[in-house]
Amino acid sequence: MEATLEQLCAALRKYGMNPVLRGDSSRRIQRVATLEDAVAGDVSFLSNPKYEKVLQTTRASAVVLKPDLAAPPHLDLIQVEDPYAAITVLIVTLHGYRQHRRVPLDRTRSSVHETAVIGENATIHPGATVAEDVVIGNNAVLYPGSYVGPRSRLGDDVVLFPNVVLYDDTRIGNRVTIHSNTTIGEDGLGYAPVGGQWVKIPQIGCVEIEDDVEIGANCAIDRATLGQTRIGRGTKFSNLIAIGHGTHVGEHGLFVAQVGVAGSVTVGNHVTMAGQAGIVGHIRIGDGATIGAKAGVTNNVPAGDTVLGAPAIPIRDHKRQVVYMLRLPELNETVRRLEKEIAELRTRFTARA
């Protein structure tokens, strides 16, 4: 799509932003690009001041930035308080979302069981498998290699990319997107020690994914032993996320790559977990908490807290520990010097005695 700068500003106003346009309002823009890759006809953005020097060399026609930042006179500017949010709107405006390829439903080529109920305008590509007693909502898209197990329920506008696997009795809400090679509803780690060996505990629960969730590639969400493993409305997962059985994740969470959450954890609403964070089982993470990268969480985290480290502690304490660690070489030299001085004083004292 192509749009003028004035039309792009109009799109921002629809989202409650108040852009100030400085430049040629009729200039036509074809795409969004980075400052480094942009060429004539592109719009770029600057949200991190450390990249401000790139403004001098970018070939973009226009740049979105904060009002207090200066830019070369050859650039047209869209000034907004939140450039990152603004460029998101412009990407949607100029590029839209991925368009899914739709094909007529052919139950034989797609291996759709005769008892499955398929909603209007749903697309099930050849090579997908839908088992017995499955219900799939309107406008759903199942790509080749995806598998939907018996008695599963998928809402409207669900997208399963290639090789997604949903075990039996999985429940998926509306407008859920699941990326390639993710598995949902596999057995949790449930074993009991009996007579010196591990005896498998049947996992008879299920997984429930609420509306507007997006799950990245190569994720795994265990079914519950009893009851449900639940992912709350609006939560977003990156790739390589593992969720243990019986865990309940609240609404509008954000989990970055390689997060691992053990079983029977309760995660509140609006929780952020950074990359490679690990959470032990049977604890509670409060609403609005932030778990830092590589944190190892072994205790409850109160609402609104930010924790770092392994074991994870409040961020203010972790920063203090980091400062102490950086001073260890200096402290070590100080201790050695003091030990030497004490030894000399003891020698003098003994000689005088």
Written account of the structure:
The chain has 353 residues and is of the alpha/beta class. The longest helix has 25 residues, at 328-352. The chain is flat and about 105 Å long. The termini are far apart.
Explain briefly what this protein structure is.
With 353 residues, the protein is of the alpha/beta class. Helices cover 18% and strands 27% of the residues.
SSE topology sketch:
Blueprint: E1 3-4, H1 5-14, E2 20-22, E3 28-29, E4 31-32, E5 42-45, E6 62-65, E7 76-79, H2 83-95, H3 107-110, E8 117-118, E9 123-124, E10 129-130, E11 135-136, E12 141-142, E13 147-148, E14 153-154, E15 159-160, E16 165-166, E17 171-172, E18 177-178, E19 183-186, E20 191-194, E21 197-200, E22 206-209, E23 214-215, E24 220-222, E25 228-231, E26 236-237, E27 242-243, E28 248-249, E29 254-255, E30 260-261, E31 266-267, E32 272-273, E33 278-279, E34 284-285, E35 290-291, E36 296-297, E37 306-308, E38 313-314, H4 315-326, H5 328-352
Parallel strand pairs: 4-5, 5-6, 6-7, 8-11, 9-12, 10-13, 11-14, 12-15, 13-16, 14-17, 15-18, 16-19, 17-22, 18-23, 19-24, 22-25, 24-27, 25-28, 26-29, 27-30, 28-31, 29-32, 30-33, 31-34, 32-35, 33-36, 35-37
Antiparallel strand pairs: 1-3, 2-7, 20-21, 37-38
